[in-house]
Structures are given as C-alpha cells and as structure tokens.
Bifunctional adenosylcobalamin biosynthesis protein
Amino acid sequence: MPSPSERPRIDFVLGGARSGKSRLAQTRAEASGLTPVLVATATAGDAEMAERIARHRAERDARWLTVEEPLDLAGTLRREARPHRILVVDCLTLWLTNRMFAAADIPPEDVDAAGRALAASLPDLTGPVVLVSNEVGLGIVPDNALARRFRDHQGRLNQTIAAAADRVTFVAAGLPLVLKGRLPEEM
C-alpha cells in the first residue's frame, strides 16, 4: 500500500470503452487503505444503462460507499472528500454528456467552463480523488455536429483534468501506461 506521501492526490485514468480504466481506478482505491467512495455520474435512462450500473455495482464490495451525482460534480467532491476517504469519479464522460444535454441552449464555452471549474476545485479537496474518463479522440471524425462537438469538449476536458492531475494513466487492453507521474512500486 503506498504511503500518503507517495499517493497522488489527483489521479486521472483514461482510456477507450472497455479498456479496463474503471477496474484500474477501483483497484487503486481499494489498495489505498482508505474508505472508497464511488461518485457515480451515470443515470439509468434505459434498461441497458440500468444493467451496466447494476453490473458495476456488483463489482464493488461492501467497503464502498456510493454517491450519485450527474451534474454538480465539483460541489459533490467538496462535500464528500475527507482525509480518510478516496473518491472515485466514474466517469467524466457521462458527466460531460449530462452537462451538455442539461445545457443544450447555452454557449459551448460554458460547457468548457464547467470543466475548468471542476479542475480548479480538485487541489482544494481534503482527500485524494481518482477520476475516470474516456479518450474519444483516437477514432474517426464523427459524422454529425453533436458528436463532433462532444468529442471536442471531451478532448478539452481531458486536457484540463490531466494538467491538474498528479498522475495520468492511459489504459489500453487492461494495461496501464503512465503518461504523467509514476506507478507505485507494487503495481
């Protein structure tokens, strides 16, 4: 278990769909020795998403606390952070989607401002946080304006959070590649 001085306060894990990023975040939280708290941003808008949420919930044991928050992520993190807890935000991609649909009639720069406000709040948290996000910019250019706008906002959000993070890990095929910071010796 890494000592508190070795543990990154802001840990950012990103990768593609089904890459193993949530599993890595969960493993890191459980190895921390702190009380793990999942901050879930998903909403069960249909049966398939309800199934995904149930599957993720079943993968966590009784140590985990769960807080559901689809929109006010910075406020929730400030409220839930404690020195004896480690927060896992899963995931920023769904939070961004929720923000975009909730704010469909506001200028695009306001969506990016929410990401900057989130990043600015992270250093003030009283405990560590692991943030999970999808990397959506590695594929082809989407064929519609909304998907292109989402991809652009997601890319800017990932850059903003990565700049604020102590450690950034990209996960592909279940394998972590540290882009910033370092892995603890036992990983």
